[in-house]
């Protein structure tokens, strides 16, 4: 007897639903929801590079205050695995949709509260402590968000278009960066100088209330993933999916995490606020206007969006692994051009450097949803995808801005930062080469045996 989706439509042989209307609804919901989540996340990271050192860590002085500000960005990554473990456990047991709604609300609430948080000058040491607590809540939410959005998109997609549909939650990330940078740039123009420091920076955080309402409404209208629906109908839900994941697929989790680490470390040069701080620091080698830098980051987020979408589509043609390899080469080449362009002191050349970088970033990000979903068996897929992503974020972007800041201050040169990022790119490339491309593999729970074999490049 064939399995059915809750809306009554039959499942295809790959565990997807035939209705194109349902697929469009899922695609829109994953883009909107992921955009809201990452807007909130990036607003914090950008503010950490621009204002938090002055408002919350001023007693530490400008140099150490900046490092402490970036550390709060990284601390949240340490709690992403907690969010991923919780989301993976409940997502594999109770479904993808409920996790997406809960993570959206948690992220939005933390963001709004940051926008209302008093500064160090107002309440003393309690201010940075509360800031860190709210950032941790953002980390827990981010750890659970991505896996659910990815599986909703890919598990609804046709077999030959998983890369394209999987790119939908991926482009929500650059859209979130675009909105975050644009909002801060607008606030910087409307409230220049001290007005921006006093309360202009808070408005983008408070604006999250509107985005939460929109994201919640959109996500509530999406049907549950057809693959999970079939798992539930067959009563094959795993009671402890995380335990089973590490018992059988620990090397896969590590390699998948390293793939993402190579992308994430480089991406967090802008999404983590490092480039914004480096380029605007009046005591640094560049000293550009804050507004010009924010608009340059906004422009580069557009090319990141486009390259991510193209890479997702191209991975359906060339394969996930090949598309990734192209991306690693492009990313590595762009890194050698980035800081020479930034150090010219030209806002236009800064934008060019970031635009070149985002091409490689998009190609090492666009195929990720489809590739990760095709790596893990159905019964542990949510756990595997979420936890690999969270661990990769810790190894990659968590402390990349802090490491870059320390390297630059210690050596007095951006060259050391370049080599650090090239090294992370090489790690991602090697991990990619050790994994097999499984484009088009059957995702349904009935194909669990097939999904558990032929994962690594050395297997024949």
From TrEMBL:
Keywords: Cell membrane, Membrane, Transmembrane, Transmembrane helix, Transport. It comes from the Bacteria. One of its GO terms (cellular component) is plasma membrane. It holds the Pfam family MFS_1. It is a multi-pass membrane protein. Its main location: membrane. InterPro entries: MFS (IPR011701), MFS_dom (IPR020846), MFS_sugar_transport-like (IPR005828), MFS_trans_sf (IPR036259), Sugar_transporter_CS (IPR005829). Residues 26-440 form the Major facilitator superfamily (MFS) profile domain. It is found in: Cell membrane. One of its GO terms (molecular function) is transmembrane transporter activity. The chain crosses the membrane at residues 63-86, 98-117, 123-143, 164-187, 199-218, 242-261, 292-315, 322-341, 347-366, 387-407, 419-435. This is MFS transporter. It comes from Microbacterium barkeri. The gene is shiA.
């Amino acid at each position: 007897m064939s399995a059915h989706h809750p809306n009554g439509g039959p499942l295809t042989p790959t565990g997807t639903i035939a209705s194109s209307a349902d697929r469009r609804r899922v695609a829109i919901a994953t883009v909107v929801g992921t955009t809201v989540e990452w807007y909130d996340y990036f607003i914090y990271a950008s503010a950490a590079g621009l204002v938090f050192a002055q408002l919350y860590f001023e007693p530490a002085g400008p140099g150490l205050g900046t490092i402490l500000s970036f550390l709060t960005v990284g601390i949240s990554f340490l709690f992403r695995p907690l969010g991923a473990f919780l989301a993976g456990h409940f997502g594999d047991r109770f479904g993808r949709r409920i996790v997406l709604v809960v993570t959206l609300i948690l992220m939005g609430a933390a963001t709004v509260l940051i926008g209302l948080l008093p500064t160090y000058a107002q309440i003393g040491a309690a201010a940075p402590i509360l800031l860190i607590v709210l950032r941790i809540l953002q980390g827990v939410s981010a750890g659970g968000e991505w896996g659910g959005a990815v599986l909703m998109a890919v598990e609804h997609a046709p077999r030959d278009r998983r890369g394209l549909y999987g790119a939908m939650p991926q482009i929500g990330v650059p859209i979130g960066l675009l909105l975050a940078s644009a909002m801060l740039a607008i606030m910087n123009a409307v409230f220049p100088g001290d007005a921006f420091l006093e309360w202009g920076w808070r408005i983008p955080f408070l604006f999250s209330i509107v985005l939460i309402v929109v994201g919640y409404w959109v996500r509530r209208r999406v049907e549950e993933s057809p693959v999970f629906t079939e798992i539930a109908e067959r009563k094959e839900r795993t009671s402890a999916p995380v335990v089973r994941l590490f018992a059988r697929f620990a090397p896969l989790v590590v390699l998948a995490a390293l793939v993402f680490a190579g992308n994430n470390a480089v991406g967090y040069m802008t999404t983590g606020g490092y480039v914004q701080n480096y380029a605007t620091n009046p005591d640094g080698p560049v000293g550009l206007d804050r507004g010009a830098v924010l608009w340059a980051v906004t422009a580069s987020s557009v090319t990141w969006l486009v390259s991510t979408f193209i890479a997702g589509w191209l991975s359906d043609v060339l394969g996930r692994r090949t598309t990734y390899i192209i991306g690693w080469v492009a990313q590595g080449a762009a890194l050698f051009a980035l800081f020479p362009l930034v150090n010219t002191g030209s806002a236009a050349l800064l934008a060019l450097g970031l635009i070149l970088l985002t091409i490689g970033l998009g190609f090492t990000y666009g195929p990720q949803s489809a590739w990760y979903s095709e790596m893990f068996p159905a019964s542990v897929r949510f756990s595997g995808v979420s936890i690999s992503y969270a661990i990769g974020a810790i190894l990659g972007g968590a402390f990349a801005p802090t490491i870059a800041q320390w390297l630059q201050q210690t050596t007095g040169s951006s060259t050391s930062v370049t080599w650090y990022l090239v090294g992370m790119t090489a790690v991602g490339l090697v991990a990619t080469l050790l994994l097999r491309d499984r484009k088009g593999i059957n995702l349904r729970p009935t194909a669990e045996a097939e999904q558990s074999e032929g994962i690594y490049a050395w297997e024949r």
